Amino acid sequence: MRQLLISSAVLFLGACATNPNDIGREPSMTPVGYGLTVAREPVPTVFPSSGRASYNSLWSQSSADLFQDPRAKKVGDVVTVTILIDDKAKFDNTTDRSRKSKANLGFDVGFNFNGRASDFKGDGDIRSGSSSEGQGSIDRSEKLRLSVAAVVTEVLPNGNVIISGSQEIRVNFEVRVLNIAGIVRPGDISRKNTIGYDKIAEARVSYGGRGRLTDVQQPAIGQQIYDALVPF
């Protein structure tokens, strides 16, 4: 009985449709580098100071070019990320599967022993059938045009940099939050020190908000808990 109760509880909890940690909050995103197989060093909490002019010179050793603005390539440098998404997708999928099987079994056994005869007969029929039908469609359209400044937080051994940036805009009682993170190759940064989000590896873009409008759009906490615990 105890094992039955434990098994039922595990089945009930395993069938939950929603992660209880996501109740009342937006979905969490995986950290930058989660999809990579190489190990990463921890992100530093203190940024090194920028280089100063050399002795008896106005030229700084940290500057790569004299006639143009340097591109972000060191920890603490700032780069502007442009996000332009105009995506449309439409998918239709239909499946229909059926299977039938039939088996017949018969036997007839007879014998004679000391004048006694016996006869055994039997027939068997086994039939089975299964069918499955499914249909699904996706039709979505997304448009987003934003810009956000990000800071270089780490320089990888191969010269690529990890950037991270956030932006918050409050309008009345709603705060719009934009977060960007990923791995950038310094050569992809333009002369204006900007880079498109499509050139960021392991890109993590999050655009949402918090406030009264977001609270109204979400179901009540009790309803979310109920949906998370209902197994079917």
UniProtKB/TrEMBL annotation:
<dbReference type="GO" id="GO:0071973">
    <property type="term" value="P:bacterial-type flagellum-dependent cell motility"/>
</dbReference>
<keyword id="KW-0966">Cell projection</keyword>
<dbReference type="Pfam" id="PF02107">
    <property type="entry name" value="FlgH"/>
</dbReference>
<dbReference type="GO" id="GO:0003774">
    <property type="term" value="F:cytoskeletal motor activity"/>
</dbReference>
<keyword id="KW-0449">Lipoprotein</keyword>
<dbReference type="GO" id="GO:0009279">
    <property type="term" value="C:cell outer membrane"/>
</dbReference>
<keyword id="KW-0975">Bacterial flagellum</keyword>
<keyword id="KW-0969">Cilium</keyword>
<comment type="similarity">
    <text>Belongs to the FlgH family.</text>
</comment>
<keyword id="KW-0732">Signal</keyword>
<protein>
    <recommendedName>
        <fullName>Flagellar L-ring protein</fullName>
    </recommendedName>
</protein>
<dbReference type="GO" id="GO:0009427">
    <property type="term" value="C:bacterial-type flagellum basal body, distal rod, L ring"/>
</dbReference>
<keyword id="KW-0472">Membrane</keyword>
<dbReference type="InterPro" id="IPR000527">
    <property type="entry name" value="Flag_Lring"/>
</dbReference>
<keyword id="KW-0282">Flagellum</keyword>
<comment type="function">
    <text>Assembles around the rod to form the L-ring and probably protects the motor/basal body from shearing forces during rotation.</text>
</comment>
<keyword id="KW-0998">Cell outer membrane</keyword>
<comment type="subunit">
    <text>The basal body constitutes a major portion of the flagellar organelle and consists of four rings (L,P,S, and M) mounted on a central rod.</text>
</comment>
